[in-house]
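Model: Ready when you are.
Researcher: Fold this.
Model:
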Amino acid sequence: MSIKRVTIVCLLVIVISALVSAGDPPVYMIFNNAPAIGEEQKDPTHTANFGVKLQEHCKKIGLECAVVYPGAPDVKYKSPTDYLIAKLKTPTKSQ
């Protein structure tokens, strides 16, 4: 892996850590292409690479995060609509 690629991955990790915290609502992201970690991307923050790294961070802090892309494992919600309907039907803690 080149220095440029390592730098990009490190920057993504820093940006991701600043984007979400444990008290945030759940996250759902859907991508047209599978991740290609370590490969140069035209726009890294709008690829499944970003989604996978964000999901890793979310798991560490206990935040629900669904990432969907072709070939993604354990896809529970195949579309944003499925995700929103499921979340809207789930009672909140105050109910």
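Researcher: Now this one.
Model:
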Amino acid sequence: MPALTTSLTPVQIKIAVQDPEAARTFYSNAFGLTESTIRHTDDADYAGYQFGDYGQPGFFLIFFLGPAAFDQPGRSTLGFTVPDLDAAHRQALSAGATEAVGINTPQGMPRNSAVTDPDGNWIWLYQG
């Protein structure tokens, strides 16, 4: 892999969903994600999914934004490395995902597949 040539580090993705509660249920059932309060202010608590610790390598946030969010993006694409691609693919489908790309091993890439969540966002799964 080429060495990084920037000091920028991606730290978050916001995923557009029609029903944030349904999205939380899907991502919990499909991938075992556990939501927590990411930010607390006097006015509100902001929930999301935190990977790692802030300021440390591997830190990353995922937020679900409903239709009322001022910065709701269009459909998103994200990817996860998983220890068992076959099991993760099956689990996502049983939780309500739709298969977009069957399990395959493309040249120059790890074994992978893709599914879409109930809102049409693409989720790539990579054998890791």
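Researcher: Key takeaway?
Model: The chain has two helices and eight strands.
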